[in-house]
Amino acid sequence: MFSVLRARAGAAAVAIGAMSVLTVTAGPAQAAVNPANCQFSYNLSIGRVAADCWNPTQSGWQLQLTCSRFRNGSLYYARGPIVYGSGVSAAQCDAHTSEIAGVDIVNL
């Protein structure tokens, strides 16, 4: 009789342990950086943009510029360094051959 109770208790402990693992892995994803929490600075003479963002989590993000070439309008991206948490990410288009067509915060 005691071995049956031990087996049931052991099976219940395994089931509870599996459920707690599922609960941890199914938790909410890290928060994304909200562009409203960023202060942008522009130096258009050299095609540079910097984003100083407040991020209370340690989630990764980076500044991404969409650059448009003068000669044919083709687009390319210039990306700043990846930042984890709060900080500054800056990127630059080549001001001699292109202009800034878009500014985005990319959450990783």
Automatic annotation (TrEMBL):
Keywords: Signal. It comes from the Bacteria. Residues 1-31 form the signal peptide. This is Secreted protein.
